[in-house]
Design brief:
Elements (H helix, E strand, L loop, with lengths): L4 H19 L3 H6 L3 H4 L6 H4 L7 H22 L1 H22 L11 H14 L4 E5 L3 E5 H17 L7 H22 L1
Antiparallel strand pairs: 1-2
């Protein structure tokens, strides 16, 4: 599969920023991650920059793999401009939803996962019958529309039950913003 311009540029930027994260002090994440209390005090650039930072090797590998896997087809289908617009709308929207519910937090949120969940949602809506193979622990075929519900359910469970340092609300925010945007866009086109 050919990697188109938008996906390629996002992959490069994310990987370069990840290397920078490994080199510079941890305060880099405080200033360029999304810190809700700081964002509300004027650090508005964080609503974009947080999407390019990641919390470790596994975090960036999974996000970049999903970006390549679903993003490539979405960019081909929509074109680079619409793809990039959707990517940033879902990523920024996920961040804003997170801030709305955690406005006094000083803990940085990092990662492209809100936008990545937005891509998953778009893929499931545009290609609902497409079969994908999950390897958990054995290969299982699942339709794209069901995969969205599975991952959405996992994130909802994580939000309500899990005591971890994953921003489940941002992931769900990416799904919600993606859904609302695509429904709004569909109404405007027809």
């Amino acid at each position: 599969m050919v990697i188109l311009k938008g996906v390629r540029n996002l992959l490069i930027i994310n990987l370069v920023v990840f290397v920078v994260q490994l080199i510079v002090p941890q305060t880099f994440e405080v200033y360029f991650g999304l810190v809700p209390a700081m964002f509300l005090r004027g650090y508005i650039y964080q609503i974009v920059t947080y999407m390019f930072l990641h919390g470790g090797f596994f975090h960036i590998i999974v996000n970049m793999y999903v970006l390549w896997l679903f993003g490539s087809e979405l960019e081909f289908f929509w074109g680079t401009r619409e793809f990039m617009k959707y990517y940033f709308i879902t990523g920024v929207g996920a961040g804003l939803i997170y801030v709305a519910f955690n406005h006094s937090s000083y803990i940085p949120v990092i990662g492209a996962s809100g936008a990545i969940f937005g891509l998953l949602l778009a893929f499931g809506m545009l290609f609902p019958e497409r079969e994908l193979i999950l390897f958990i622990p054995l290969p299982i075929r699942v339709k794209a529309k069901y995969l969205v519900f599975i991952f959405g359910g996992i994130e909802l469970f994580g939000l309500l039950i899990a005591k971890d340092n994953i921003a489940h609300l941002a992931h769900l925010g990416g799904l919600a913003v993606g859904y609302l945007y695509l429904r709004w866009k569909r109404r405007r086109l027809y």
